[in-house]
Write a structure and sequence with these properties.
Number of strands: 2
Number of helices: 8
Main location: membrane
Subcellular location: Cell membrane
Distance between the termini: 36 Å
Order of helices and strands: HHEEHHHHHH
CATH class: Mainly Alpha
Largest sheet: 2 strands, antiparallel
Protein name: Cobalamin (Vitamin B12) biosynthesis CbiM protein
Number of domains: 1
Strand content: under 5%
Shape: globular
Oligomer: single chain
Pfam family, one: CbiM
CATH topology: Arp2/3 complex 21 kDa subunit ARPC3
GO cellular component, one term: plasma membrane
Radius of gyration: 16 Å
Length: about 210
């Protein structure tokens, strides 16, 4: 799903960079309000887990790759704003130190994986009820599927590859990857909550509902 340098035109990557900058800035503000000092280490632990999970990827087509995303799990445990910061940190480290995703298109990669994916998961959790297996699965599947659609649209808008080619490739592969993402996310979320790991951060949706 990481877009390499040279695959987006200036108007597309600059627009994506502007949107992702606003989203990350807002996430920093909201995370300060919702997570205390005791919960801050949870962001680091989640970033390390997602970084490791995303290292397993394979070519999909149109110069992009397919892999697990982890946004739905981070959103379920940390909320959408904490998840945005975690995913953005992972995407930045991957681009700067592992050449996984380009530098000029960093804003687009952050927008797709660190903004769209957590927000999609968040909407699913709000609609179906956070913590329920069905919500976790659908939140995972929708987050990775719609992020892949965003990548396809950006590549098509840039004139890199026709939409008729890149959209079926990205949508088809990530519809399948989303099933695996959903099952893994449900299993990991159940393990974490059952064993009380990251317990303070897990309360995000409950705390939000009381405000």
């Amino acid at each position: 799903m990481h877009i390499p340098d040279g695959f987006l035109d200036a108007k597309t990557w600059m627009s994506a960079a502007a949107l992702s900058s606003v989203a990350v800035g807002y996430s920093i503000k909201k995370t300060r309000d919702s997570l205390g000092d005791r919960q801050a280490p949870a962001l680091g632990v989640m970033a390390a887990f997602i970084f490791a999970a995303q290292m397993v990827n394979f070519p999909v087509g149109g110069g992009t790759s397919g892999h697990l995303l982890g946004a739905a799990l981070a959103t379920a445990l940390l909320g959408p704003w904490g998840a945005c910061l975690v995913l953005a940190t992972v995407v930045i480290i991957q681009a700067l130190f592992f050449a996984d995703g380009g530098i000029t298109v960093l804003g687009a990669n952050i927008l797709n994986m660190a903004v769209i994916a957590p927000l999609v998961s968040h909407l699913i959790y709000k609609f179906l009820g956070a913590g329920r297996p069905l919500a976790i699965f659908l939140g995972s599947w929708c987050s990775i599927f719609l992020s892949a659609i965003a990548v396809a649209l950006q590549l098509a808008l840039s004139g890199t590859i026709p939409l008729s080619v890149v959209l079926p490739a990205m949508a088809g592969w990530h519809a399948l990857i989303g099933i695996g993402e959903g099952l893994i996310t449900c299993a990991v979320y159940a393990f974490i909550t059952r064993n009380g790991l990251l317990e303070p951060a897990v309360r995000y949706y409950g705390a939000e509902a009381k405000r």
